[in-house]
Design goal:
Blueprint (H helix, E strand, L loop, with lengths): L10 H15 L3 H13 L4 H20 L5 H21 L11 E6 L7 H12 L3 E4 L6 H11 L3 E5 L6 H14 L7 E4 L5 H7 L3 E3 L2 H12 L5
Parallel strand pairs: 1-2, 1-3, 3-4, 4-5
Helix pairs in contact: 1-2, 1-3, 2-4, 3-4, 4-5, 5-9, 6-7
Length: about 230
C-alpha cells in the first residue's frame, strides 16, 4: 500500500474542508462520513481531515451551550466522531519509527475510563509515523512506570477527562519524574479538563487542548516534521 499524495491546500480543498465542518456541525452523519471517505481517497492526510472535524465539534459545543442542541445532539456528535475514528484507523499508513526517538507511551489515568480522545490521538500520531504503545484506560501510576521502564518511550502521553481523577494524574506524573527521569522522556497531558493551571498542578511537561495540538508537540519534542 502506498502513501497517498498530499498537497498544499488550495481553494477547493478549503471549500471541501468547510463543507465537512458544516455537515458534522449539522449532525448529518452519513453525508459527513461519505465526505471523509472521499477526502481520504483523494489524498487528504488524516490529520488535516481531523482539523476540520475538531472545528465542527467546537461548533457543536457552542450550539449546545446556546441551547440550539440538547444532550441528544452531543450523543449524535460523539457517535459520529467514533465512526470517524474508525475510518481514519482503517486508512492510516503506518511508517517505521525509530524505537528510541519515535515511540509514544499512551494511556488514560487511573480512575478514568474515557478512551475516545486517546484513541483519536493514537490514530493520528501513528499516521505521522510514530509507534504508539497504548496501554488502555484506568491505568495505575505503577503500570505507567513499569511500561515506561520496559519500552523506554521518547514521550509519555496521559489522558484525563475527569476532574475527580486529577490527583491520580499528579501522582502518575510525579512517579514518572522521580523514577524515569534519567531517560528524559517528557510527559504530555491532555483531556477536556486540562489547561495551563492543571499543567502547573501536575508538574507535567506539556499539555494539549486537542489531538492536533498534541501532534504538534510530539513533532517538536521528538524532532519530526509534519510532512
Amino acid at each position: 500500500m502506498t502513501e497517498p499524495c498530499c498537497h498544499e491546500p488550495g481553494r477547493d480543498d478549503i471549500r471541501q474542508g468547510r463543507h465537512l465542518t458544516d455537515l458534522i456541525a449539522d449532525l448529518k452523519e452519513e453525508q459527513a462520513l461519505l465526505e471523509i471517505k472521499n477526502m481520504l481517497a483523494s489524498g487528504w492526510k488524516p490529520v488535516k481531515v481531523m482539523e476540520y472535524c475538531l472545528l465542527a465539534m467546537r461548533e457543536v459545543g457552542k450550539r449546545f451551550e446556546s441551547g440550539c442542541y440538547f444532550i441528544s445532539g452531543l450523543i449524535m456528535a460523539g457517535e459520529l466522531m467514533r465512526r470517524t475514528n474508525e475510518l481514519l484507523k482503517a486508512n492510516f499508513v503506518q511508517k517505521q519509527a525509530e524505537p528510541d526517538h519515535g515511540t509514544i507511551l499512551l494511556g488514560t489515568i487511573s480512575g478514568d475510563i474515557h478512551n475516545l480522545g486517546k484513541n483519536l490521538f493514537a490514530i493520528l500520531v501513528r499516521c505521522e509515523g510514530y509507534h504508539v504503545e497504548d496501554i488502555g484506560v484506568d491505568v495505575s501510576p505503577e503500570h505507567f512506570l513499569e511500561t515506561a521502564v520496559k519500552i523506554k518511550p521518547g514521550l509519555i502521553g496521559l489522558s484525563c477527562m475527569l476532574t475527580s481523577a486529577l490527583p491520580e494524574l499528579k501522582t502518575t506524573v510525579e512517579l514518572l519524574h522521580e523514577h524515569f527521569a534519567e531517560h528524559k522522556a517528557p510527559v504530555l497531558i491532555g483531556g477536556n479538563c486540562i489547561d495551563e493551571h492543571i499543567l502547573a498542578y501536575s508538574n507535567a511537561d506539556y499539555w494539549a487542548r486537542d489531538a492536533i495540538q498534541g501532534i504538534n508537540i510530539c513533532n517538536k519534542v521528538l524532532g519530526r516534521c509534519n510532512t
